[in-house]
Write a structure and sequence with these properties.
Rossmann fold; alpha/beta; binds 1,3,4-trihydroxy-5-OXO-cyclohexanecarboxylic acid; 137 residues; 5 helices
Length: 137
Amino acid sequence: MKITIINGPNLNLLGTRETDIYGSQNFDSYLDSLRTSFPKIAIEYFQSNIEGEIINLIHKSKDCDGIILNAAAYTHTSVGIADAVKSIDCKVIEVHISNTYSREEFRHNSFLSPVVDGIIIGFGLDSYRLALESIIN
Ligand code: DQA
């Protein structure tokens, strides 16, 4: 089984960015532990701060078994990423580390939520494991 994680803008700074909200673990070390916990799953990982690159990555990942997508700030702004999700058949799970509904109002809207297969929000980095389990199951 092949699953792709796509992280959007500023998530390359996890571990040092707003640690009160996102925690102090960087994504690479989290990814190591995820791969160790799921040795039979090929987990591909991409991160980009650029909207068009995220769209290209979604197109490129269309043949995998599932995409775990944290589009970060683009969640709240990007019709282009939502259209990319709509244009592929692969299962897509939207994830967020923080509970976006308990934060500023502009984070309450997601252009992605209506077009993805499922949404996991607010469990810290564990949101990614929960999304992975949902695809496997
Ligand atoms: C985020 C929530 C977004 O509102 C924010 O812009 C992010 C991270 C999260 O994972 O909690 O960059 O997607």
